[in-house]
Prior knowledge:
It contains ten helices and 20 strands. By secondary structure, it is of the alpha+beta class. The protein has two domains: 7-189 and 413-421, Adenine-n6-DNA-methyltransferase TaqI, Chain A, domain 2, CATH 3.90.220.20; 232-379, DNA methylase specificity domains (Adenine-n6-DNA-methyltransferase TaqI, Chain A, domain 2), CATH 3.90.220.20.
Amino acid sequence: MSKDKKYSKVVPELRFSEFEGEWQEAILEKFLIRKPEYGINAPAVPYSDKLPTYLRITDISTDGYYLKDKRVSVAKEVTEDNYLNEGDIVFARTGASVGKSYKYNITDGRLVFAGFLIRIKPNEKKISSELLFQFLSTEQYWRWVKFSSARSGQPGINGKQYASMPITLPPTLPEQQKIANTLTNLDDLIGAENEKLDALKAHKKGLLQQLFPAKGEKVPGLRFGEFEGAWEEKLVDDFFDVGSSKRVLQKDWTNKGIPFYRTRELVSLSKSEPFGSEIFISEELFSELSKKYGVPEIGDFLVSGVGTLGISYQVKAGDKFYFKDGNVIWFKTGKDIVPDYFNFCFQSQHYQKQIFGQSSASTVGTYTITNAKKTKFWKPPTKDEQQKIADCLSSLDDSITAQSEKIEALQAHKKGLMQQLFPNIK
Length: 426
């Protein structure tokens, strides 16, 4: 898109009926109070309310929100102009986060922005800063980021480049503001639903602590009334056949067939995240391995043993795959243990602390078959109590999944709405 081209005869696919006229195409600097500015370079220090709060690239979420739980301070004398003000927008200028943006909100507190961020001050008499911030989520913007940042060896966009960024805007401020309000209200709704999701996750975390005995105790702090008797701390090796897969050589990998999972795929499976299998083995080899050595069955557990530790996946009906030996530990369905119950044992602090304690005591970053066998878990006196706990926590997991899907649907709705409310300029 040329800098010299002032107007483009474009209109959005979806428009409020009271507005008409062609949208304007111009460059960002025409709508700024002054030139883009760089932040201050200084080391971050632990957060203190006696020092300025320091906003870094890592303190901004992928969707442009300030991550208050990660806040830090800066031990350097700053001026009033180093602080962000209402309406200011900052951009990441280098690295993998280049193009990421954040619009300052006074509810985030007073923030000093770091040197790897660039601030712009939109002129509210010419442009709605909220509409501009929404524009920074469009496909048009991210195409520009990809093109502009790839022009040098190190991914990066400087202040001059941001100032020359092409934008397409409604011809009047009232239309800009109406679009901005529509999308902001949708953001607020998504934010409220995310808070509900966080509350459900916090509730589950609390239940996981209460439904299992605390250190030094033999019964949980919260128990269903029909059960009694002391719990026992048992070794995994007493109830599960712990091992790994039969080694599959790299020469036997194929481009299609039965999926062959490593730790990275296991992590995605455990989080129910979509992923594409990169490695496969043939149907013939899978059949041979199945007959000679067995393959994961419903209720078995696969546990990450290298790199990302403490991740488990419970095999489900319909699963058909094989996995890499050494990287992944295989817990074959245990005797006298309800698999769904053990799934939550694995998620408990009691179990997770042992995984990381054992890995640091031996080889850093590994959880071995030997360590897995001697890991302890809490066992209630009866399988009925195991099942009741599993049902309770599974029901909460279902609520968390439903809430996550609701948020994903709202996010998809916003994405579709933005594609219609902004002209798609290529």
